Amino acid sequence: MTAKKTRHILDTIAELFPDAHCELHHSNPFELTIAVLLSAQCTDETVNKVTADLFRKYKSPEDYLAVPLEELEQDIRRIGLFRNKAKNIQSLCRMVLDKYGGEIPRNHEELVELPGVGRKTANVVVSNAFGVPAIAVDTHVERVSKRLGLAAPDDTVLQVEQKLMKQVPRDEWTLTHHRLIFFGRYHCKAQNPQCDICPLIDYCKEGKKRMKTPVKRKAIK
After folding, report:
1. pLDDT tens digits, the chain, 221 residues: what are they?
2. Which of this chain's residues are annotated to bind [4Fe-4S] cluster (predicted)?
């Protein structure tokens, strides 16, 4: 894809969602890390409902370790995979206390060593909590990138991230991440994408198939 086409896609999505942002409620890096860990295979809406009570009860890593694992499991039982996530939260808190003095590390390489924290979670934390440019590829970012031709259909999540990093200016990485999520969550949905009103339909092979008759719009060459 040409730089001009990429720029057009980014600018169009920016116009649609100028106020895109992280929708996980948090007040510090520690809460954000817990929230992102909980969000795996779960909606941000559900996570926010759970953390509204969770973050009132647990303020620090010590708080999560002061209760039995079974109690923490009950506190997050509305979250998918809650047992495994509860175990990871306590293991993460132990490592944060033992290795990092109770503070979430700012370094990406250190973050991914924490239990339950993968590359995507680390990218979300460094970009939103510490202001380090990053593109976290979740299911929405992956879907939108592949549909619009920013990545190939068979690319891995890492390949999608690497291609986006090459095509998007570094100072726009974090904002682009949020905008792609909003575009995927509220417009280019997995099951019922709004192809009939999509300003980027010309870039989307899947969208054209859904529409049967391609929508005529001036494409960027």
Report:
1. 789 999 999 999 999 999 999 999 999 999 999 999 999 889 999 999 999 999 999 999 999 999 999 999 999 999 999 999 999 999 999 999 999 999 999 999 999 999 999 999 999 999 999 999 999 999 999 999 999 999 999 999 999 999 999 999 999 999 999 999 999 999 999 999 999 999 999 999 889 888 875 445 555 55
2. 188, 195, 198, 204
218 is catalytic: no
Do 125 and 167 lie in one domain? The reply is no
The answer to whether 12 and 180 have CB atoms below 8 angstroms apart is no
- Concerning whether 138 is annotated as a catalytic residue, the answer is yes
**How far apart are the C-alpha atoms of 25 and 31, rounded to whole Å?**
8
Length of the chain: 221
Asked if 210 and 197 touch (Cβ cutoff 8 Å), the reply is no
**Is the overall model pTM greater than 0.85, yes or no?**
yes
Determine if residue 93 is labeled as part of a ligand binding site: no
Core vs surface per residue 41-73: b (16+ CB within 10 A) or e: ebebeebbebbeebbeebeebeebbebeeeebb
Catalytic residue among 120, 146, 163, 202: 120
| 176 domain-assigned | yes
Do 164 and 116 share a structural domain? no
**42 among annotated binding-site residues:** no
Q: What span, in angstroms and rounded, lies between the C-alpha atoms of 77 and 123? A: 26
